[in-house]
Fold this protein.
Amino acid sequence: MWRRGAITTETLYCQHGFDQWFPLSTIVEELGVLPTLSPISLSRPSTLTRHPDALTERLANSSLPTTIKVYSALSADRSVRLGASLLDLLIAGVCFTLGMLSLFVFAIYSESIAAKTLGIILMSVFIGGFLFAQLRLLVTRGQTIGKKIMNIKIVKNADDSLPSPMWLLFFRGMLNIFAVLPYIGWLLFVTDYCFIFRDDRRCLHDLIAQTKVVKV
């Protein structure tokens, strides 16, 4: 009944020993549920879900306790994030392999200047094109190719907005740089991704960059 909206925070209740009726909003924290202001369909985003400020304003103007939390975009599933990472690795591997094969076949095993030039151009197209696409998606949308395919993106943990390129490229990628260090690199890599088993599903690089990965 609570989820259907039949019972709301405005519903009155009476406890044994009291001769007054009180709204459920006075004990909402004891009930352990998030109060529903009005039934909101999850299948089709409403004005409130598409515009968090409207929901915040409605809560501020209501008589509900000020300790109520407004939940933001849903965090991406761990399996979806893994799938996006594997797709990025697969696409990167294909592009780099084709690029290096082009370089060896045309530029190294051929004495023709035209063939050498073609090999360098093909290598630049495969590898450079992949890097350009990844960086452009990351900076403009908070996505990589894999994340775009899996319909997830990187946002700021505080307000779900797009992080700046500095936070995306430097702070979020900092651990990837340290991962190549001998002896401790593998430990940092494993520790980073083990953090995804936290309740908020944020890896260590997410905590450093103050970001999270959410569903689009």
